[in-house]
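Researcher: Structure prediction, please.
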Amino acid sequence: MPPSELFDSDALVAVLESAASPVVVFDTEEVIRYVNPAAGREFGYEPHELVGERADVLIPPDRAAQLREMSRDWAEEPVGRPDSGGLDLWARRKDGSTFAVEVSVTPVSTADGPMGLVAIVNISARIDAERTARRLARAHLAMAELNDAAARATDVGGLIAAALPTFTQVDEHARIMVVRADGSPVTARTAAALALADGRRTAYAGPEGPDHVVELLVLRDGEPLATIVMTSPDPLIEDPSVRAVLETMAANLSGALDRIAQRDRLRRLNRQRIDLFRRLLDAQDEERRRIADDVHDDSVQALAALQLRVGLLAHQAAQGDPRLVPAFTAIESELERVMVGLRTLLFELEPVSTSTALVDVVSEVLASLPIEGLTVQDLEIDWSAVPGEPDPGLLDLPQHLRGQAARILKEALRNVARHARASWARVVVAPDPVGVAIAVVDDGVGFPDAAETARSAPGHRGVAGMMARAAMCGGWCRLDRESDRTVLRFWLPRTGLAPDRVPVRT
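Model: Predicted structure follows.
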């Protein structure tokens, strides 16, 4: 029956014929009585091909129960329904393809009695957009988890083990294989569903047929390390926005691999530096012992013999020519001063105590000052304890660090005693989780420009030496003038290996 005979209103027919949305009219027996041109285009039929057919020709077979339920409801209560009532509705085209729809049903009067006018909206694009948005949300969450895993990873194996599962979170149906640059697989999931040869894709077939594929290149030091091959029956994995997130994840993984490789290289270089440093210190200690032996066996013994001869000559002069006594006395005094200097040098050349406890190192330094004829009034030691940390005085240091800490501290106190004209001094020892900081504070005259003096003044080689010693140990040393006091601070790592993060020079 032509539309003009089915509907009483020519205006209604004109609206239906020109409508952009698909419209289909069914009678109470589920027979199609009218199809507008838009519906014909959507379903792939000429309108006359559908008129007279049952409605289930437009419904996927697995959704037939929904059609029967809707027909019963309509027969019992033929009133308008503005939406799909929350049902997940799908339609079928002539070529068998399906698409998601929303429908609204409006009762109409026709020449053949009451019928249902069904307006159909294809919502596939909206559903795809929603699925893409959900997939993107999962992808960004996966990227955040990968970044967290990369930040916590300490080695390549741990990083790969933690990172690969994050890629599967983007698509729960995805299968993953990691292929080395040389073509050998690193790890696989459902590897039987994948076929790889020489690192190149030859076929990817899942249980339901060919898969959609994303291949992500992973680099290390700018060179290809491996390819992450993701296959999925879901075409969304190839969506440009999802692929962009996956490529960013692969780039972040490459960056994390570079970070671990760089850290490992730095650690190797640091260990080599420390080994060379220890050898240098051993050579220095050996040279110190040799010099001390030479000074003791030659210079000190010769000077002692000279003192005896001068003493005898002074005694003879007193008996023969008393006018020579003051000259001999002056010579004896000068010889005694030189002898004290040599003994101080011998003491300085002695190796540091074998005790590893920091309190013994500091105590030994303090005990050495009077022997050298140096005193600091009101010298105070402040052991700054840290909650949860052991007694700082019992902190152990490696042998090479112990010696450097002692020599830096001794030089600092020696400077206070000789040059500062201080009325008080304070040694503050403050350990931290990776090292120990020691500060020597005094109220002496200080320097006009402490930093400039430490760098360039020829009269203060000791300060430059302290800085060099600390730097060789992987630490730092600096000299500051703070209002009415001078502060020399130095920090050394506990292990002798510079940590990944060195405390700020405050």
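Model: Residues 240-320 form the longest helix (81 residues).
Researcher: Thanks, that helps.
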